[in-house]
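Suppose you are handed a protein chain with no further information: no name, no annotation, nothing but its sequence. What can you learn? This example shows the usual starting point.
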Amino acid sequence: MAHYGSDGSRIPWWELRRDSSHQAPDPNTEEAIIQLYSARAARWRGAFGVHTWFATKKSDESRYTRIEVMGYALRWSGNTVRLRQGPPDNYWFGSRPYLLREIRGGDDVNEMIDRLHKAAHEYPYDDQYNVWPGPNSNTFIATLSRAVPEMGVELPATAIGKDYLPGGRVLAASPSGKGLQFSLRGLFGLMVGLEEGIEVNVLGLTAGLDVSPPAIKLPGIGRIGLSDFDRQVYTSTTDDS
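A reasonable first move is to predict its three-dimensional structure. Written in structure tokens, the prediction is:
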């Protein structure tokens, strides 16, 4: 897929903008923060799907940690999982990210962050990456979401690879933790959940119906209907008395 600048010149995909989209809270806040972003994938992949990632900041930190899988990293490091400090909300090779979830609070959110990081370090496909049907960056985020079901994550229908279940399993909890999904290696499957509604996966492409809030989900297009963005605020579990 070609990309062009305002002057009509062709821009290589690796030179497309990667600067901050200025959606994340100031990292100097004393709140712990978890954010989940998605953005259209680079090059031709963006016509079909998105790339997703988490950004976290514990209450005693002043910088965000971005957590994601990058397939091209496998070529030069032998590993796909990346946990690194820096801006949490950068454009993804020219695509502006969309904030899917935001969770803010105290010690309970700090504990969720610890579990997210632990799940990232234990991800079983750190040395593997397949654009289709998985495991890929969306497989990674779905796996982490199942490890911390309190987040209630609903991944977009365009997150190809989210239905690839680790370990060859055919049945698992949905990423939100509020439903079940059946999947045959990410190629065919069905998901039913309070967050996800009903989703049917055929050859990695997802179509479905959501009722809370109402929307339809279409392959390559995603959600059409009311926004499903959820900002959850948790109070600290610390007892100062």
